[in-house]
Amino acid sequence: MRELRGEGDPALEYRWALPSTLLGDGRGGRVRRSTLDWVSDIMLFLLASGLTFISMEELRNTPEPLMAIEQIVGALACAGVWLRRRWPVGFALVTILLSSYLELVGGASLVALFTVAVHRPFKVSGPIALLALVTLAPYVLLRPQEDLGPLWGAAFGVTVVVAVYGWGIVIRARRQLVWSLRQRAETAAEDAKRLERERIAREMHDVLAHRISMLSLHAGALEFRPDAPAAEVARAAGAIRSNAHLALQDLREVIGVLRHTPPGAGDPVPDRPQPTLADLPTLVEECRQAGMDVRLDLSAGDGAPAALGRNVYRIVQEALTNARKHADGAPVSVTVAGERGEGVSAEVRNPVWTRHAPRMPGAGAGLIGLTERAGLAGGRLEHGVRDGEFRVSAWLPWPRETDGDDS
């Protein structure tokens, strides 16, 4: 939290409750007060005025010239309470110094000390409070009270100053705490929004990248083989139409989830049936129909949670999409195995392939998204070239006990 440099401290400008309230800028700028500010200013003005009227009883035997000075300065000090927000430190210094001898400035000086304690850090308010204590000495010696001796008068003054200053410090600490909690809440909300944006981007990529790559593959085949038999052309066109239709369905699904998901709902499952481990053979067959050489070894136990199956499916789907984009024509091996309580491992391997045809664009966002997806599920994912093969290896936990919604 930044310290004050003659300007309003955001921790103390009532922004935690009243965003429109602005304290003085330390240069005499215009002060905008909220309703709560007006109420507190009126109450403090009445308090200072009341203490001034009460103190007049102590001036019964005061000479008339000094009485006139007391009344004029006391009235000006009470009126100056309305300037405490604009010049809190200056107002406090003036009133405290005047209160070292004048009686009727005492109420305004206490209000000024309270204001500085609330609106300024300790390195500013502490010396001012110390000054208030020091000025008690000349007041007690030069203006002794009839019913109190110097010692008791000094003790009473110290008690009042410490109580007022302590009250202001407590209020300041409370406002700082509230401001800090609000800042933390705002930061948490921003983090939640960022995580939600990342989740949306990851889901959009995982859902659409596979379909779009299939469209690009079949469209490329039509472009490079315009003389293909009519049956192959029809089959490629049908695949393009089918994948375009599925891509639109997936897009509507994701958008529908975003529209109807309440805040804090986590990673919701859309209404349309989501892919599971049982859908991996269908995915592999679809890739084979697109011309890929894919071998699947699926030995995961039955009853995997829906979320686990969906994550494994998305990981295999993205790995196949990458293999199709960057190593089209290379044989791909998919191995998925696991049991309840041991977790599920998925590995997709393909030889490092050298192609002469242009590659489809890719920025590595898919692998980054897969790593994030595995991490959020409590697992891990590794990828890279090893033994002449590009491998994507993932492990996801499969608890022994699962919730009913996931089993």
TrEMBL record:
Pfam families, per the entry: HisKA_3 (PF07730)
Transmembrane segments: 38-54, 66-83, 89-117, 124-142, 154-173
Matches recorded under SUPFAM superfamilies: ATPase domain of HSP90 chaperone/DNA topoisomerase II/histidine kinase
Keywords, comma-separated and alphabetical: ATP-binding, Kinase, Membrane, Nucleotide-binding, Phosphoprotein, Transferase, Transmembrane, Transmembrane helix, Two-component regulatory system
Name this protein carries in UniProt: histidine kinase
Domain Signal transduction histidine kinase subgroup 3 dimerisation and phosphoacceptor: 196-261
GO molecular-function term, one example from the UniProt record: kinase activity
UniProt cross-references to InterPro entries, sorted A to Z: HATPase_C_sf, Sensor_HK_TwoCompSys, Sig_transdc_His_kin_sub3_dim/P
Enzyme Commission number(s): 2.7.13.3
Organism: Nonomuraea spiralis
Catalytic reactions of this protein: ATP + protein L-histidine = ADP + protein N-phospho-L-histidine
